[in-house]
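Risk register update: the risk that structure generation would not scale has been downgraded. Supporting records follow, first protein first.
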Amino acid sequence: MVRKRNAELETWMKEHGLSAGALAEQVNDAMADLNGHRGVVTERTVYRWLSGENRSPQD
């Protein structure tokens, strides 16, 4: 499968001044707010989203 860089996410992060680590923290905080359990998204997870290694949602 060919990877496609997630330029939209990268642009959004730049516009909001977020690093990969900061986005991971915000996602984990949002998960805790929604279901009472903190998420396990890491900085590495966000880098994988950006590189196209992991896609969500799937096509």
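Supporting record for the second protein:
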Amino acid sequence: MWPIYALGLICFIPISTPATYLTLSLRQLGFSTFETNLLVIPSTAVAICNLLLLTWVSERLNERMLTALIQDLWALPCVIALRVWSGANKEPWATYALLTVLLSYPYCHAILVGLSSRNSGSVRTRSISAACYNMMVQLGGVIASQIYRADDKPLYKRGNSVLIAIACLSILLFIFAKFYYVSKNRSRARKWDAMNVEQKQDYLDTTKHQGNKRLDFRFAH
């Protein structure tokens, strides 16, 4: 389960940080409070649609890790633009357009919650894994809120460099998690297939392994 917990910790940070400071950034660009409240609506609406679409695609393709990876592939070019573009946080409407694209991202939280539940293997483990995953997500939110610092404003070049690094790390972690669970399933399948019918039945009758520890359990990925 630890790859899912690690993803919950880091994969939302590249988007959570700009999202946390969105209204403040728009106010600093010269938009009024009323205009700011209206300007945040499009990204929220599109993000909801993209969340539903991404979750549906993951179930349709029966491919969850690589589908969830789209979230950080979406975020990375936008964060790079915030870092290297000379007009970032200077040109109001262009910066707003960039932030809107970034925050219209396909949110993979539902996919990871589903994976956490499926890969628990038992009701008891599911309760613990859900709590651990949510703790990691909340901790990631705390980390995200500390990346943009006062001594780095208004361009936040150092902060955006950190976000780029975290987005790249998250992409690699999604790929690692995919291969980790595939290799786990293959290893268990080899051991399980090496048993004859009597050995399999004896294992099922006598094993003390529970939930996702059992040889006949296969991880979703």
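Residues 2-213 form a domain with the Growth Hormone; Chain: A; fold (CATH 1.20.1250.20). On this basis the risk owner (M.S.) recommends closing the item.
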